[in-house]
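Help!! Second protein's tokens look totally different from the first
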Amino acid sequence: MSSTEIAEDIAARIKTGEYPPGSRLPSYAQLKEIYAPVSVATIARVIRDLRIRGTVVGSPGRGVYVPE
């Protein structure tokens, strides 16, 4: 699965309410397991792209959240 496909899947899960506003996304390690076999670097790239789009927010050490 490519980083684009993973980003689209996460965005779709947000739109359907699987990850509702204000909720925390799974950790990078958990996302790596969900989308195996991908690397943590791929997950980091996906999260960076979703942040740029405004789909998610967060900071290192706090986690990644769906904006309210």
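Here's the second one for comparison:
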Amino acid sequence: MPQLHAVISGASIAGLSSAYWLRRAGWRVTVIERANEFRDGGQNIDVRGIAREVLFRMGLFDAVKAQNTTETGTVLVTSTGKVRVELPFGGEGGATAELEVLRGDLARTMLDHLPDDVDFIYGDTIADVTDVPDGVEVGTEGGLSLRADLLVIAEGVRSATRDRLFGDAVDQKELGIKMVFGTIPRTPTDDDRWRWYNAIGGRQIHLRPDNHGTIRAILAYSRGEDLKGLDRAGALAVVRAHYQDAGWEASRILDAFDTSDDVYIDQLTQVRMSTWHRGRVVMAGDAGWCVTPMGGGGASLALISGYVLAAYLSTTPHNLETALTSYEKWLRPLVDDVQSLPRGLEYFAYPRTRLGMAARGAVDRVIASRLFRPIAAKVTRVAETKQVLPALRDAAEQAI
């Protein structure tokens, strides 16, 4: 029986998880990544819920835990840096999770444990996809032509391939939140906590420790001028003007962003799709259901998606429609749960007035109280389900 071939577009968490598990299920795997080399950078992510079980099954739980960012908890601070509220932390729950790692560290750990015969094509993107008998022909901008039994689109929230192939099934909702992420030098005033500051005008400032001797900084704000279409310098100029009177560490962060080689600017967009598969093409990760940091759990869902996809394909490898339908049916309730954002969340997370800030402060104190801590911890729980992970038959089992 000829070996089935999967082409995966995107080498981040969802793409690497799909590559790992499809190879375990006996598929030949080719990964196409638009970057010229593997991307190690990125901000904090966490692994929660049933995604932890996926890591255990990969044999990577301890390896990922060893990459912990060193963050020990989360505090909300005043403009002088004084702690006003400490958020609950409790192992799997809490704002800071037990498996709190950098995106690049998790991705690198997964990459290092992939089978050697997973093929990577860097510096290239998909140009066209054509149906052929019993497969698809994937053409790249670099002139390659790859025949595949399955194409997995794991390109992230701005996926061009998704928009070409699933345009009528895609709903992209702008959440009105701008975020600038970057790595900045650590100073003696930094510590091992996630420090979170809110300023009026719907502005947030975050400083988080990492395990590389630097600090991961985030500026996030509600509404304001559109950053799309601006180059980095132009976007940072707009953000600097927006944070001119924000206080706390705003000036330090913006000055460091000017020279940092690891700055990422985004406008949060939630992606919803009426279907995640058509024919021999299937979505995985943010390309199919970006939940954004407002919902949380994107990395966990990406890890889970690769396993669940491969598991159903391993039990029905020659009934693709059944496998992909089962994959979507199993995973969609987890995604829907995270994408259903509470009404008013933006105004709570990004107070715009002094009155709003005072109300937020009162709620924060209640949430952090001993009585409400168990309830607050539940809010951070994602990727939890009573469903059992489907069994995956590896290549050896399928040969029997």
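Reply: Different proteins will give different token patterns, so don't panic. The two ends are 13 Å apart (CA to CA).
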